[in-house]
Rubredoxin (Sphaerospermopsis reniformis), 114 residues
Amino acid sequence: MSEQAEEALETQALDRYECRACGYVYEPQKGDDKYDIPAGTAFAELPINWKCPVCTAKKVAFANIGPAGTASGFKENLGYGLGVNKLTPAQKNILIFGALALGFLFFISLYGLQ
Ligand SMILES: [Zn+2]
């Protein structure tokens, strides 16, 4: 179960952020040469004084557009991302437990049919 939780965190850490002022996209896999940000740095881990390397907009001007390779339309993704971020670890555990319990019940019901 803890592996699933870590996986979810890693996925979130790779979310890209788009500058709403100029359209520059910060990609965690690439980092940012201009500010000596090493590759693999999540947007949330950027220094508070980090600014858009193109137009120097502040971090608050950026919108979460999700991990690379997903469909765009960042408004939906933004709402989705915020919703997940608001979940406490306990709530995430409940979700994971619930999924496991459902899978278990399904398994048992198959047994009952035989
Ligand atoms: Zn910008």
User: Anything to note?
Assistant: Residues 19, 21-22, 24, 52, 54-55, 57 surround zinc ion (CB under 6 Å). The helical segments are 2-13, 74-85, 89-113.
